[in-house]
Design brief:
about 120 residues, mainly beta, 7-stranded mixed sheet, 4-stranded antiparallel sheet, 11 strands, about 0% helix
């Protein structure tokens, strides 16, 4: 199971970096991603990355502000979040796949989920 870290409470316009570490030996072979869920919404795709780190996908609401990256040598995936907005407030979940390698945005393609880390952005 992936383990997230790096959440917290910040003011609008600030930055946060979320990290996710996986113990799975297959981590470097498959996709990883970040999803989020707020109190009034279903879980939604934020950003995903293919097995190699060369293909990334972003939801429109984070394009230009968030950057996903991975270090397969360390079994880690990172989400750099800049210019945070109050609407980014949510629990952020790291997910890794056991079968998809393309960086799919479909949460059903991800098999392993972390417990989530809270991000709160105040105006």
């Amino acid at each position: 199971e992936p383990v997230e870290s790096g959440g917290g409470s910040v003011q609008a316009g600030a930055s946060l970096t979320l990290s996710c570490e996986s113990s799975a030996h297959i981590f470097g072979s498959y996709s990883a991603g970040w999803f989020r869920q707020s109190a009034d919404k279903d879980r939604e795709f934020v950003a995903t990355i293919d097995y190699s780190g060369s293909v990334t996908n972003y939801n429109d609401f984070v394009k230009g502000r968030f950057t996903i990256s991975r270090d397969n040598g360390k079994n880690m995936v990172t989400l750099q979040m800049n210019d945070l907005k109050p609407e980014d407030t949510a629990v952020y979940y790291c997910a890794t796949s056991g079968g998809d390698y393309s960086g799919s945005a479909d949460p059903n393609r991800y098999d392993y989920w972390g417990q989530g880390t809270q991000v709160t952005v105040s105006s």
